[in-house]
Amino acid sequence: VQPAESGGGLVEAGGSLTVSCRYDGRLFDIKEMGWYRQTPGKERELVAGIGRRGDAKYGDSVKGRFTIVMNARNKQYLEMNNLKPEDTATYYCYAESDQTYWGQGTQVTVSS
């Protein structure tokens, strides 16, 4: 399974941005897809995840601002609204079965 991110970039605080992920490979045993983010010197943290039935979960810091959508069997995207400077990070999409597959990451920068 190969996740590949697209989107990301620079946005002002209060603005919106969407990042997308496409998955190639055998997906029949994938249980969950989603996003983590990481900044230098910090651990990777969960942003949002979505199961095959559309059940979603979110990190506490993004609840009410971010929405994850699975728009195809092998695609999902993350809508990010009311962005804050502390949302600045590298965003990694993932797919989880009995192991976790990671994308290369896409940078999101929120200016104050």
Which features characterize this protein?
112 residues, mainly beta, 4-stranded antiparallel beta sheet, 0% helix, globular
The assigned structural class equals mainly beta
Q: Which range best describes the helical content: under 10%, 10-25%, 25-40%, 40-55%, 55-70% or over 70%? A: under 10%
Order of helices and strands: EEEEEEEEEEE
Low-confidence segments: none
User: Using DSSP, what is the number of strands?
Assistant: 11
Largest sheet: 7 strands, mixed
Number of helices: 0
The radius of gyration computed from the alpha-carbon positions, rounded to a whole number of angstroms, is: 13 Å
Shape: globular
What is the terminal separation in angstroms?
37 Å
Beta percentage is: over 45%
Q: Could you tell me the mean pLDDT?
A: 96
Characterization of the model:
The protein is mostly beta strands and 112 residues long. The chain has no helices and eleven strands. The chain has strands spanning 2-7, 9-12, 17-24, 32-38, 45-51, 56-58, 66-72, 75-80, 89-96, 100-102, 106-111. Strands 2, 4, 5, 6, 9, 10 and 11 form a seven-stranded mixed β-sheet that branches. The radius of gyration is 13 Å and the shape is globular. The model has no long low-confidence stretch (mean pLDDT 96).
